[in-house]
Amino acid sequence: MKGPTFAGIRCMVKKEFRQIRRDTRSLGFMIFLPAFMLLMFGFALTLDVKHIALAVVDEDGSQASRELVEQFSTTEYFDLKAVLPATTAIDPLMARGDIKAALVIPPRFAEDLLAGRSPSVQVLVDGSNALSGTTAGGYIAAILQTYSQRITLETLARRGLGRLSVPIAAEVRVWYNPELRSSNFLIPGLIAFILMVIVTVSTASSVVREKERGTMDQLRISSLRSSDLIIGKMIPYALISLGAAHLVLLLSQILFGVGIKGSYPLLLLAMVLFVCGALGQGLFISSVTRTQQVAFLLAILTSMLPTFILSGFVFPVRNMPAVVQAVTYFVPARYFLAALRAIVLKDAGLAAIWQQILFLAGFALLMLGASAARMGRGEKEPRPRRGRARA
Predict the structure, then answer these.
(1) For residues 104 and 57, is the Cβ–Cβ distance under 8 A?
(2) How far apart are CA 348 and CA 269, in angstroms?
(3) Where would you tag: which of 122, 168, 228, 319 has the fewest CB atoms within 10 A of its CB?
(4) CB 220 within 8 A of CB 381
(5) CA 266 → CA 269, 312, 364, 375, distances in Å?
């Protein structure tokens, strides 16, 4: 394959910009769809579990049992929906989804506490949603543990054992996301997901469109080289994609308060490498397919599913089986996502994310090289003679 020429690239870039400007649907797809997806996912997708509907069966009816119930009603994690007369009333409410958890306080609860015994409190949690069920169970266990510690200390004080304190006092400080907002975790993942899907899908149809219109053969018999074709087609889409990425970053700051704490040049470097890799993937798909429908399906399958499932966007990679974890090492969004979260949330420098930058650069070179090789192969393919074509 021969090297690129400036004149060829400039000619190709002008032609591609002219074609994109005429195709307003593709232009809107690349610019406004990322912003729309950010709004949809940003507001709809959340991992926060709050305002869990709780029912209480207080079979003791004492001051101590009412104090325990108050521990739940004063937090934002639980909403006390019903005080039930018996445990038999729990099942219908939980089956209809009216409540997600239930607390059953047994008879003689206060009496056992005063006697120094350990009364058992029953907790029922709706496990049909594993995430919310696990989270609700954890919240309830934490509240009961805090309440038990306070009762233990008060009991020991009443018995004349003086003012005691727990042996270890935990002083928890949360770094990088002190409010523990799930949006701070999800928004960088959304940016990676949106960029990968939009860039790959939009470029996957570019060369195929030339094939369907019959203009690809005109480009091949022209003086343009395959490297001119690749670079000339890549530059307009790269610029538009980076513009869309900045629009998404701006909306993330305005709507969700997720600003960039780290270095902007380092963030731009990671974005450029990631976009170039996605562009190369889209161009490669476009070079091996003959119709826009097939190119679209291949682009969706190779960009959306791996990025959403295997990049750590929603599901932690470390919790996956070992075989699946090995597959995630071939997903570029995993590295871009790690770099993006490190720069945006942790103010990390190049020393912390050089491995991710190196992999993104390697992925971009691999995909662009493969696309150029496919284009070069197309240059060498013999064209059918007119006589044979008629026959």
Answers:
(1) yes
(2) 14
(3) 168
(4) no
(5) 5, 21, 17, 32
What does the mean pLDDT of the chain come to? 82
Helix-then-strand count for the chain, H and E? 15, 4
- Spatial distance between the Cα atoms of 111 and 95, rounded to a whole number of angstroms: 33
State both tokens at 206.
């570019």
- Torsion angles phi and psi, residue 123, rounded to 5: -125, 125
Rounded Cα gap, residues 267 and 271, in angstroms: 6
Determine the longest span between alpha carbons in the chain, in angstroms. Answer: 109
| Ranges of the chain whose pLDDT falls below 50 | 379, 382-391
Taking a C-beta distance cutoff of 8 angstroms, is the pair 41, 182 a contact? no
pLDDT tens by residue, 294-332: 888 888 888 888 888 888 887 888 888 899 999 999 999
Q: What single-letter DSSP state applies at residue 320?
A: S
Residue type present at position 3: G
Strands (E), 262-388: none
DSSP 8-class letter at 160: T
For 253-288, the DSSP string reads HHHH-----S-HHHHHHHHHHHHHHHHHHHHHHHHH
- CA separation for the pair 345, 262 (Å, rounded): 7
